[in-house]
């Protein structure tokens, strides 16, 4: 079952299924936010935005509105 990146819980690991290339900053794509890559939610800021992820050993902060444009599947559901 696929979910949005913004729906992960801290510690969840997932595989990126799809990204909305129209809405994702190019820098994020260059850092590995691409289909097939593994992503893990490390932290969430106190007011719920931004999220702090580990994408293929790169640590990245992603705003909630951007995280809503990425579809993932949890590793334990594969």
Overview of the molecule:
The chain has two helices and six strands, in the order ββαβββαβ. It has helices spanning 26-30, 64-67, and strands at 2-4, 13-19, 38-44, 51-55, 58-62, 70-74.
- Sheet of most strands: 6 strands, antiparallel
| Strand fraction | 35-45%
- Find the count of extended strands (DSSP E, 2+ residues): 6
How far apart are the termini? 9 Å
| Rg over C-alpha atoms, rounded to the nearest angstrom | 11 Å
**Helix proportion:** 10-25%
Output the strand order for the largest sheet: 1-6-2-3-4-5
Backbone structural class: mainly beta
The best one-word shape is globular
Multimeric status of the protein: single chain
List keywords for this structure.
single chain; 78 residues; mainly beta; 6-stranded antiparallel β-sheet; 2 helices
SSE topology:
Layout: E1 2-4, E2 13-19, H1 26-30, E3 38-44, E4 51-55, E5 58-62, H2 64-67, E6 70-74
Antiparallel strand pairs: 1-6, 2-3, 2-6, 3-4, 4-5
Can you describe this structure in just a few lines?
The protein has 78 residues and is mainly beta. It is 12% helix and 41% strand.
């Amino acid at each position: 079952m696929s979910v949005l990146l913004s729906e992960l819980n801290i510690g969840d690991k997932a595989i990126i299924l799809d990204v909305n290339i129209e809405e994702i900053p190019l820098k994020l794509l260059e850092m590995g936010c691409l289909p097939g890559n593994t992503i893990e939610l490390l932290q969430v800021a106190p007011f719920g935005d931004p999220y702090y992820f580990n994408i293929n050993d790169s640590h990245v902060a992603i705003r909630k509105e951007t995280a809503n444009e990425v579809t993932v599947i949890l590793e334990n559901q594969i």
